[in-house]
Amino acid sequence: MGKQKVTLTINGDQHQGEVEPRMLLVDFLREVAGLKGTHVGCDTSNCGACTVLMGGRSIKSCTYLAVSADSKEIVTIEGLSRNGELHPIQEAFWENHGLQCGYCTPGMILSAAHLLAKNPNPTDAQIRIGIAGNVCRCTGYQNIVNSIQKAAETQ
Amino acid sequence: MTKLVFPQEKWIGTKVKRKEDLRLLRGKGQYTDDIQVPGVLYAGLVRSPYAHARIKKIDFEKVLGIPGVVCTLTGQEITALTNPVPKNLYEPYNKIEDYCMAVGKSRYVGEVVAAVVTENKYQAEDAVELVEVEYEPLDPVVDPEKAMQSSSSLVHENVPSNLVWEGKYDYGDVNGAFAEADIVVKDQFYFHRFTSAPLENSVVIADYDEQRESFTIWSNNQRPMFNHRFVTTALGIEGEKIRYVTPDIGGGFGIKNDSYLYLILLALLARRAGRPVKWVETRSEHMASSLHGNEVFYDAELAMQKDGTITGLKARAVHDEGAYMRREPIGAINFIRHATVGYNFKNLTMDIRCVATNKCPVGPNRSYGKMQQCFLVERLIDIAARRLKLDPVEVRLKNFVKSEQMPYETPTGMILDGGDYGAVLQKAVELIDYPKVRAEQVEARKFGRYIGVGFVMGMDGCPVNSSIQRMMNPKAQASGDAEAAWVKINPDGQIVAAVGSSPQGQGHETIVSQIVADTLGVHPDDVYAVPGFDSTVNPSAPQSGTYASRFAIVGVGAVLGAALKVREKALQIASHLLGDALIDQLELEDGRVFLKDAPDRGVSLEDIARTAWVDLAKLPDDIEAGLFAHFVYRPDFKLPVDKQRGNFSLTYSYSVTGAVVEVDVETGKVKILRLVVVDDAGKRLNPLIVEGQIHGAIGHQLGAALYERLLYDDEGQLITSTFKDYAAPSAADFPTFEVDYVDNPSLATPWGARGAGEGGGSPLIVVSSAVSDALAPFDVEIKSSYIDPEYVLKKLVEATD
Amino acid sequence: MYPNAFDYFCPDTLEDVVALLTQHGDDAKVLAGGQSLIPLMKLRLASPKYVISLDKLQGLSDIAEHGGEILIGALSCHAEIEDSTLVKSQLPLLHDTVSVVADVQVRNLGTVAGSLAHADPAGDLAPALLALNAQISTVGADGERTMGISDLLEDAYLTSLKDDEVITHIRIPVPQKNSGGAYIKFERRAGDFAVASVGVQLTLDKGGNCAEIAIALGAVGVVATRAEQAESLLRGQPISDDLLKEAAAAASTESDPFSDIRGSVDYKRHLVGVLLRRAFDVAARRAGGEVVETVHG
Predict the structure, then answer these.
(1) pLDDT averaged over chain B?
(2) Predicted confidence band of residue A1 (pLDDT cuts 50, 70, 90)
(3) CB atoms near residue B746 (< 10 Å)
(4) Nearest residue of C to residue A20 by CA position?
(5) Cα separations in angstroms, B227 against B81, B223, B233
(6) Residue B692 touches partner A, C-beta closer than 8 Å
(7) Among A113, B88, B247, C1, which residue is least crowded by beta carbons within 10 Å?
(8) Which phi and psi (to 5°) does residue B71 adopt?
(9) Where does B488-604 have alpha helices with state H?
(10) Chain C contacts of B125, Cβ < 8 Å?
(11) Nearest C-alpha of chain C: how many angstroms from A39?
(12) Residue C253 phi, psi dihedral angles, 5° rounding
């Protein structure tokens, strides 16, 4: 059967590609669309570094096929800030030192975006459960939780 | 030499928001895998499924038929192409051969035995699957104690034993101390194997320029210049033939110190392929074969007087080193920097044994070799205190080195650089509200609930005085530590700084900007700190890199030194431009030099810089053109005092962690109710960043105590080879941490900072302390650093049987 | 890590799905949410030659009450079930379960039917649905059929689904009045596979006795099983601590765990007893009308 033609809407822009069915969505984002902000940290769908929004819901783009994403709407970290302005969640991460190496940050922020869209006023425990699919190895999560809490307050 | 003092501290010591964040938050950071080198190929690595096996045959026949395959490489070819990486061990163990691939036999599961280079990364995995390797399995060496026996098979057959390094150390009068002691507690302890596993796996891209016979190596190695000598020795080339680039790095924690073998391997592949080659480590590869933390088996005794005075320590430490000694035995010897932690006892012996086994090599992992020693001492103190029915907090206060004794020389020769250990412990005690918790504990037990509280100290010497290498090999010719930086003001007034560190999230761009801002009287936003590291741009020393919490000392020293030289020169030029005004009459503020007495008479840094670079005739006669300074800083490190003593760090960072836990005695599950860290990093250069580092150390070390363990079975198979099995905790697994400070400037650095952020293991050790306290009614003492529910339940069952 | 190469189909109708499955037999795999299948394919533990996506099928993601049953479309993802007020009010046991399956992102894609069909011995859905006496409806070349969960699960990672069959619905009887249920999972860390898990669904009679009970055990055998001896000890009996302890001991004995990274045989058996008592307590209180949050281990 070979390659298949797909068209994805990523951050509002259409991206076409002819891809092997086995290509993972994360590789489409990084290598076809050239959006390197989505990262890979594991092989087993545990770390969440590859988290993006699809149809408004957070998913792990390393555990999804690019062909399955055909004609779907994806938002990556690059699509979150508008007109160069930081999104309130990004702003809160900056203010509250919610990142160190930055590798988990895009996925973490998109998980936070999904969480706050569903629950605009989460408790500390709800935030922690809401980002339980995202592993950070630098921060011990404390400032990430603080950042999301602060973002909720300012949104 | 320029006196390294900040002219002002307007920005240093303040919570400047991080510069790095603006790109990282937008997904615009650049990690090694993000770099797209034109024409790049991908390497797939064939790895040993056996812990110990002879490699009989490697067959590429099936591979060569599939699309995209460019070239292959095997361990057999490696010996002709490279030299082994030099080993800093005594004879004959320095003859152990360590190449970038297994040669002749594989010595751990995951060791690289062959490589295939393909056009794309999916093909690389397809090809790896098709390589047929014929192995002859050998007896795996998995138990370090058995490995030392003469009946054991050898991991390395060209040396006589698996006991590849041994050191016996004796301080004071240990026998006398034990003879006079009122009690001796004696037990076995285990410090488990885990890894701080950075979220970004290793990535290397190499390119070979045939015309210049030189390489470019992009990687996320956290100290390429430190490892440079290994790479050049292996490749047999001269120093300037390699350009290293490390862009943003997705966490390191020591694990990325020793990825240098992949730098060598990718250089070989690029040269063979004639095109750039990229290798992206998978998580499984990372878990099996990057680097593990030191795993130690202790037999130990502590002698104590009835009043709680510690008199002596005896320990035999067996390190399960894995298959190769790479940075080791430094981690094993690191006991020496924290042998007595913060306590004032004088008598101890340590018998250190490093044993080769068929497992992944161990090496630097946040609080490398330090948390192990702190764990041992802290556990013994708690056990002795309980035996004597003394309060463990009181016992610690009694034995601490006192602040008025500072600087204090420990029996192993460390010069403790100030601090107030008692005050830090007492602050933690207050924050936890110790008497209240004790009362709650009594009350809870009536209802069958088991609450426990513990306070432990962690100590972390930083940076490393490389003369510690003389402990592992008396012939080693290294001492001290150095880092390099340059600072310049361009003709357009732009201020630029670069340093030799390759940070992994420590915010060096921000701190460099703070340093330069205070030195040159500008705003941190006016300073461009070069991101990442590129050996053709950044200056470096052979020790350069970000490891051992060294930046707050050597990195800061280097940048400050360079910035001060630029300042001095700017003032000289300004003095000349202002009609030979006396330099001590000049002020530098807001990017402008002016006369103190007549502030309206001045000249901007931009004008000074332009003059220095392009309006050269206006310069004073005796001054070099340009406004640029390079500075290589070295702290005041000495050679060892004797064969077993020396000051191997400059600053001794320390913290006390207090924790309240509840143990579910039905399941063994431990819940952290409170976790308080009181830290003394001395002067905190950027309190925001220091706090983040402390949180990070808590994350790793609490994670290690409760969740993270690298486990091998009896055949040497790694059971925890993915993030599915290796339980890296999430936010939902952690409590909210409480962090506070007692600031006692370091007496050893002019700016008072200590290296921060490794924690000395106190957040890990405190769990064993508090859980033991919770289970005191059952007379349970925790003797393992890894405390999963099943272990706790087993201890309870043993105690109640 | 990347899957082996395969051909991909995304048919519009169930008939086409069945036709493709019939054509390709066990060379084909059905892709629903993919949260079990894709990780296996990436690790190359599964290498289907044909992947048939259910993504375009309509009408298989509703959750509704119908004729004394709660019908859950096979493509409902865990998050949809977690958010369902019907499930929360009628099937608190299932709500407990889906809220501890992996993590948010996985729950946003992973489906209840996919989880069942994957038949991981430590999966959460099988014990939960077993305790709820659920049935599944399937469609295949030979038409539709309905079966119980215990008939579906044959062995670790093995079900009685034929190569040409797909699950279309989960059917759960609406619990009687005075019923309550709870699912408790003991996990090493949040979102991990269970070390052991227990689901208890019970009905109290007017005297407060345990009129009817179903107990299912997860992660302590190659497939999820009912703890029948424990059930029969409790069924029709007044609730007492001693009886509960006896039932817990029986369930421990009935369980047949294997030793792995998550725990030894003895430890898992021990957990079964503890979790049974805890799940029973929550279920009984819920049956009595209390609003109780489950505390997972």
Answers:
(1) 97
(2) low
(3) 27
(4) C5
(5) 19, 6, 10
(6) yes
(7) B88
(8) -160, 170
(9) 508-520, 556-577
(10) 1-2, 44
(11) 13
(12) -70, -40
Q: How far is B758 from chain A (nearest CA, A)?
A: 11
| Tokens linked to B404 | 């008025």
How many angstroms separate the CA of residue C206 from the nearest CA in chain B? 31
Contacts C258 to B, Cβ<8 Å: none
Cα distances (Å, whole numbers) of residue A123 to A61, A115, A145, B146, C100? 27, 11, 10, 52, 18
Helix (H, G, I), strand (E, B) or coil at B626: coil
- Locate the chain C residue with the closest alpha carbon to A45: C39
- Note the pLDDT tens digit of each residue in C97-128: 999 999 999 999 999 999 999 999 999 999 99
pLDDT, tens digit, 9 for 90 and up, residues B632-683:
999 999 999 999 999 999 999 999 999 999 999 999 999 999 999 999 999 9
Which residues, numbered 77 to 106 in chain A, qualify as contacts with chain C under a Cβ-Cβ cut-off of 8 Å? none
Question: Strand B183-191 to strand B495-499: parallel, antiparallel, or no bridges (unpaired)?
Answer: unpaired
Distance CA B457, CA B395 (A): 12
Chain B residues touching residue A108 (CB < 8 angstroms): none
Contact residues on chain C for B127, CB-CB shorter than 8 A: none
Q: Do A97 and B722 touch (CB under 8 A)?
A: no
Cβ neighbours of A104 in C, within 8 Å: none
> Among the residues of C99-182, which ranges form H helices?
104-109, 112-118, 125-131, 149-152
Q: Nearest C-alpha of chain A: how many angstroms from B700? A: 7
Predicted pLDDT at B88: 84
Q: How far apart are CA B726 and CA B712, in angstroms?
A: 12
Sign of CA dihedral A89, A90, A92, A97: positive
Chains meeting A at 3+ CB pairs closer than 8 A?
Answer: B, C
Burial A56-85 (b: 16+ CB within 10 A, else e): ebbbbbbbbbbbbbbebebbbbbbbbeeee
Average pLDDT in chain C: 97
- pTM for this prediction: 0.97
What is the helix (H) or strand (E) element at residue B671, kind and residue range? strand B670-680
Burial class (CB in 10 A: 0-12, 13-18, 19+), B337: buried
Q: What would the pLDDT profile of B706-760 be if each residue is shown by its tens digit?
A: 999 999 999 999 999 999 999 999 999 999 999 999 999 999 999 999 998 888 8
Residue A61 CA to residue A53 CA, distance in Å, equals 9
Please spell the DSSP secondary structure of B586-597, one letter per residue.
EEEETTEEEESS
Look at residue A71 in the predicted model and tell me its pLDDT: 97
Task: Tell me which of C105, C106, C120, C192 to substitute to probe the interface with A (most A C-beta atoms closer than 10 Å).
Answer: C105
The residue type of C168 is: T
Sign for the pseudo-dihedral over CA of B252, B256, B262, B267: positive
**Pairwise CB contact (< 8 Å): A133 & C103:** yes
Could you report the predicted ipTM of this complex, rounded to two decimals? 0.98
- C1 closest CB neighbour out of B125, B711, B725: B125
Closest CA to B468 of B349, B643, B348, B319: B643
Q: Are A147 and A89 spatial neighbours (Cβ–Cβ below 8 Å)?
A: yes
3-state secondary structure B420-455: CHHHHHHHHHHHHCHHHHHHHHHHHHHCCCEEEEEE
Contact C261 B719 (CB under 8 A): yes
Of B64, B82, B76, B70, the closest CA to residue B134 belongs to: B76
B229 touches chain C (CB under 8 A): no
Say if the Cβ atoms of C5 and A63 lie within 8 Å: no
CB contact under 8 A, B251 and A137: yes
**CB of C10 less than 8 A from some CB of A:** yes
- The length of chain C is 297
